[in-house]
Design goal:
The chain is an alpha/beta fold. The strands form three sheets. It has a seven-stranded parallel β-sheet, sandwiched between helices. Strands 13-12-11-14-15-17-16 form a seven-stranded mixed β-sheet, sandwiched between helices. α19 links the parallel β14 and β15. α2 crosses α3. The longest helix is centred in the last third of the chain and has 22 residues. The protein is globular, with a radius of gyration of 27 Å. The structure holds fructose -6-phosphate. Fructose -6-phosphate binds next to loops.
């Protein structure tokens, strides 16, 4: 049955790393089999965030398993235009730093469209590019990523099946999606040179990779809908050797996962019932308790109806499950026995640690819950995992430098040394080129500004000074958008902090959408720390708290859980919404315009309010009480 919905073969992996390892192995197999035949192996390569872990694995295979690239010829899909070959964001440079500089490929065998060529010469350049691919014998294996709008290479929606290598205007959505690589959107080039759809379809074998929930809707369209130029990746349905390699979150919208009851036998666990009923209720725009037997039959849930007998029974079961997620007591309601309550009443008060990847995620994502936990008498600690220093603008830091210099002047303090640091910092900022990495001093000052804002928020909520922890995890401290991978230096201090506090509850940002973003690394650090403590605790009495420590996940500023996944929903009154808004306002360095803002131009307080109101409205649509806003959590069993 699965096949009847999917027109392209899809392999689902538990993580981007596992998926990338699989693709790397496919590449290694082709290279090695061609080596045995003494032939060249022609690879088509992509850039962007998706193939980074693939390239890391290829480099590892070269270093540790002697995979040679001497017989490999590469053609990259695309390049921004115009862009200097050496510019920080050029795909030319990306390929060198991520792959080519670390393997034994002959530089003559590397081909990347030239983003620095004169405009009059582009047509000729594109023609030559196609010819070079042909002369090399065609592409043996083409690696692709996919844009949120369905583009492959930079073939934006509307690109036809016969399109060839050419200059193309980037979609505004692509420029916004890629703005994170640039200091701001205006610096993203408007054009690009890309191989065409027909150039891609000529490859002998194609693998498209996609990670994260942001890609889930377009993966479904490309795989299950009819092929169309509006979703260029769907045109791959016309090739007979294509595989999509995706992680579980990118596969989430496929019918086999989203509505498994439509693709064959399905086990009707309580979770599955909740999911099916909630989906149907939203689709039919009817409250759960109003669904009828014929709704179940028409929506493809006749199986469930047969198993349970009557819509009324199923409706009630789903309704109670939804109702039991709502509580005003995020730390559990003391001295009460409420069956089905998401948290335990005891112990009371609880020790709580909120891990906040950036200095404002605590208030943006769970400000109402944060306040309630404190007001209800729990011992709340906040751990700010990274300094967040790259998200402070130069204008903002200059304002603080002016203050610091002025402060010294009016107070007459003799501060020769700090005066010099401040003066140097000011001079650097005046001369700073776009995208130049900040000096250590400026990064520290930017970090200090964000620390001040986080402290002020904690004061506003009522948190004691000694319960505020600034971790400044080293993986983040690169001064650029590109972060280092998680290391022992991140995990060890987190273990120490947890051991010191011995919390009953830990809150953490559970954003799995962007596999290379700060939030996922921050989550992995906490998870690894908790797991190690638990492992060590086995058989020891000293750490028994860990067996009683629950991990709750919130989503960062960008998304919310699907309503059927939510396990704890904390309602907020209109006054609490306002209080949270003012808490977010404290982060003045993050207002109006921040570097690397990404695809959403709303301010953080707007995103938070809209999201919390949407969650509350969804609960109301399903037929539950209508609150002004709600914050939502999912429990993670580690
Ligand atoms: C880049 C390319 C693009 C990307 C796509 C996804 O060479 O061909 O099609 O694959 O924009 O980008 P990421 O991987 O950054 O999500």
């Amino acid at each position: 049955m699965v096949d009847s919905y999917e027109k392209i073969s899809v392999k689902v992996f538990s993580s981007p790393v596992n998926g990338s390892d699989y693709v790397a192995q496919q590449i290694a197999n082709i290279i090695r089999s061609k080596q045995k035949l003494k032939q060249n192996c022609v690879l088509g390569l992509a850039t962007g965030s998706t193939p980074k872990s693939l390239y890391a694995e290829l480099v590892r295979l070269h270093r540790e398993e002697k995979l040679s690239f001497k017989n490999v010829i590469t053609f990259n899909l695309d390049e921004y235009y115009p862009i200097a070959n050496n510019a920080l964001q050029s795909y030319n440079r990306c390929m060198r730093t991520q792959l080519f500089d670390h393997i034994d490929i002959d530089p003559k065998n590397i081909h990347i469209p030239n983003g620095a060529i004169n405009k009059e010469k582009i047509k000729e350049h594109c023609g030559q590019y196609e010819k070079m691919i042909e002369d090399a014998g065609g592409i043996d294996l083409q690696i692709l990523g996919i844009g949120n709008n369905g583009h492959i290479g930079f073939n934006e929606p509307g690109s036809g099946i016969y399109s060839k290598t050419r200059l193309i205007t980037l979609d505004n959505s692509t420029r916004i999606a890629n703005a994170y690589e640039f200091a701001n959107i205006s610096q993203v080039p408007r054009l690009a040179i890309t191989m065409g759809i027909s150039s891609i379809l000529k490859s002998k074998k194609i693998i498209l990779m996609a990670w994260g929930s942001a890609k889930a809707p377009v993966i479904k369209k490309a795989v299950e809908d009819d092929d169309s130029e509006h979703v260029p990746a769907s045109l791959l349905q016309n090739h007979d050797d294509v595989t999509f390699v995706v992680d579980a979150t990118a596969a989430a919208e496929l019918t086999r996962n989203k509505s498994p009851w439509l693709t064959g036998d399905c086990e009707w666990t309580p979770k599955m019932i909740k999911r099916a009923v909630v989906n149907m209720s939203m689709k039919l725009r009817k409250p759960v308790l109003s669904l009828t037997n014929s709704d179940y039959n028409e929506y493809g849930l006749s199986d469930l109806l047969v198993e349970k007998g009557d819509a009324y029974e199923i409706n009630l079961e789903a309704y109670y499950m939804l109702r039991d997620t709502i509580t005003g007591w995020p730390g559990g309601k003391p001295n009460s026995v409420i069956p089905g309550h998401p948290e335990r009443p005891a112990p009371y008060p609880k020790k709580v640690v909120i891990f906040s990847p950036h200095p404002d995620d605590d208030i943006i994502s769970m400000g109402g819950t944060f306040q309630r936990l404190h007001d209800q008498g729990h011992d709340v600690h906040v751990a700010y995992q990274t300094s967040g220093n790259i998200a402070v603008t130069d204008e903002f830091v200059t304002r603080f430098l002016d203050f610091a210099v002025g402060f010294e002047e009016i107070t007459g303090i003799d501060t020769k040394k700090s005066g010099k640091i401040l003066e140097d910092a000011r001079k650097f900022l005046v001369r700073k080129k776009s995208n130049q990495v900040d000096t250590h001093a400026i990064r520290s000052i930017k970090g200090l500004i964000r620390r001040g804002e986080a402290r002020a928020t904690c004061r506003y909520v009522g948190i004691k000074e000694e319960n505020i922890h600034f971790q400044d995890l080293p993986f983040y401290e690169t001064g650029t958008i590109e972060k280092k991978p998680m290391s022992e230096k991140d995990i060890r201090p987190t273990i120490e902090l947890l051991r010191q506090i011995k919390p009953h509850q830990v809150f953490c940002a559970g954003d799995f959408a962007d596999p290379h973003g700060t939030h996922i690394v921050c989550f992995n650090v906490v998870l690894e720390a908790l797991k190690r403590i638990k492992k060590e605790a086995a058989g020891s009495l000293n750490y028994e708290w860990i067996n009683d420590c629950w991990l709750w996940l919130y989503k960062g500023a960008w998304q919310e859980w699907n309503i059927e996944e939510i396990e704890m929903a904390i309602p907020m009154s209109p006054d609490q919404v306002l209080k949270k808004r003012f808490g977010i306002f404290i982060h003045q360095s993050q207002k109006d315009m921040v570097p690397f803002q990404g695809s959403d131009s709303r301010e953080f307080w707007q995103r938070a309010e809209e999201r919390n109101a949407t969650t509350a409205n969804l609960y109301a649509d399903l037929g539950l009480t209508h609150y002004a806003a709600m914050e939502a959590f999912v429990r993670w069993h580690y």
